[in-house]
Amino acid sequence: MARTTVHLVRHGEVYNPKKILYGRMPGYHLSSRGSSMAVAASKFFRGRDVTYLAASPLERAQETARPIAEVTGCEVQTREDILEAGNTFEGLRTKGWRSQLINPVRWRHMTNPLEPSWGEPYQEIFQRMWGAVEDARDTAEGHEAVLVSHQLPIVMVQRHVQGKPLAHASRNCDLASVTSLVFDGGDVVDWAYTTPAQHI
């Protein structure tokens, strides 16, 4: 049986001058740098045998997918199951000395980092993301598929294929990075991580 590769692409940089945790909020688009990152990521797929392309419905993922569609000739499918993780702190400023997480009213959401208690459980994120990976693998059997998603859903898959617990303290999933899973039938036999936009 021919091997199938499923590539997980994180979106490019978002224009967010107010440093808001935007999560699933609409209206957050790629910055000019993010658009350049998307183009750099698309070049990774030039000449590859991609037969299926899907993206999260959020603007930043759709905009990252467009240059990939141009390179591969695939139409972008929209998938809700590769959406950004849900987060209680969505809409808040969470970085720097003006972080709204300093307010004690938020602390009740920080009781269990292993779940995590402030958002969508890691296991639920993994299950929906892995379901999308398996569907993409089956759809592109013997070829390659691309899913344009977000950092945390991709990290859940990375940790699963490495045999690590889903709870974590650090992540290796740069903007516009590509995590590639190689399947032989239903089994992941190899995986790789690439940063085609690292120079931007």
From TrEMBL:
Origin superkingdom: Bacteria
Cellular component, GO annotation: cytoplasm
One GO MF term: phosphatase activity
Record protein name field: Broad specificity phosphatase PhoE
